[in-house]
Amino acid sequence: MTELNIARDQILEVIDKLTAKKLTIATAESCTGGLLSSKFTRLSGSSKYFQMGLVTYSNNAKIKILKVNKNVIDKHGSVSPECCRAMVQGLSRISKSKINISITGIAGPNGGTKDKPVGLVYIGLTKRNKTIVSKNYFKKKDRKSIQNKTIEKCIKLIQDII
Prior knowledge:
- With about 160 residues, this protein is an alpha/beta fold.
- It is built from six helices and five strands; from the N terminus they run H-E-H-E-H-H-H-E-E-E-H.
- Helix content is about 45%, strand content about 20%.
- Strands 2-1-3-4-5 form a five-stranded mixed β-sheet, with helices on both faces.
- Helix 1 runs parallel beside helix 6 (about 145-160).
- The longest helix has 19 residues, at about 145-160.
- It is globular and about 45 Å long.
């Protein structure tokens, strides 16, 4: 079974659990550009469990749409646990979903620094009033691999929280 099939099987398992528990999910994505939302909406009937997917790629979108405080981005950067937490909390207020997930990171191949290298990705997750932020470093340096590894990690985190 290929890596893509594993992810497909895992997303189907998540969808089954969301549907069975009558939970909804929403996403706010930056470096994955809507890839996670796409995984959830590929199947007919996804409106039963998928509330919304926002691609808040720019800092301005994070500030205007998700209401991330500009000072958070100025002080910590858009690729930071603080920004990721603010993104998922803002999404939670907008979506009213039971589960919310945010993604911010550096998918490359450019844009990395010594402190924030290509492959650094933060994933924020809320379930009701509980918020967690996961720091991840995906060592593969090509954009597609980093995005796919991020989606796999998101699916695993969602599986764990449902």
